[in-house]
Amino acid sequence: MEVPSGTALYLSSQGNPLPTGIKKWCAMYNKSFVSKTVMAEEIKGVMEDFDKRKEAEKTGNTEPDEDGWVTVVNTKKKPRQVKVDELKQKRNRKKKKQQKLVNFYSFQDRQTKMDHLAQLRKKFEEDKKRITQMRTSRKFKPY
């Protein structure tokens, strides 16, 4: 198709303008979205088909076949097998929740150790006094 060099070709006219550039891109972007009413109708149709299939499955299980027998189908869902690791993790999470943070900071840990040592020393001194008291009253017989 050859076009003579002296003629001009127009893509759009004033009566029917053709969108170009960013206006065209914006229009394409806006058209890419589906309106709410169309989407709602489509969803409604899909859900109706789904409900019909579910009903057909339920009624199909109770209808007798050509021999007159009703096929019994187990409709219960199988329980998910819990892995041993998952159980251990669950227990550990419960333990962590129940545990209280006793020594959150390192200085608290040192302080508790010092308190424990002080209690041991105090107990030792009390035992020493009691032994000396028993010796003086001659009730202490180590052998």
What is the element layout, followed by pairings?
Layout: H1 22-31, H2 36-62, H3 84-98, H4 106-136
Rg from Cα: 44 Å
- Which descriptor suits the 3D outline? elongated
Return the string of H and E elements.
HHHH
Q: How far apart are the termini?
A: 128 Å
| Secondary structure category | mainly alpha
Give the integer mean of the pLDDT values.
85
Largest β-sheet summary: none
The counted number of beta strands is 0
Enumerate how many helices there are, as a single number: 4
Overall description:
The chain is mainly α and 143 residues long. Among the domains are: 51 residues; 35 residues. Helix content is 58%, strand content 0%. The radius of gyration is 44 Å and the shape is elongated. The mean pLDDT is 85.
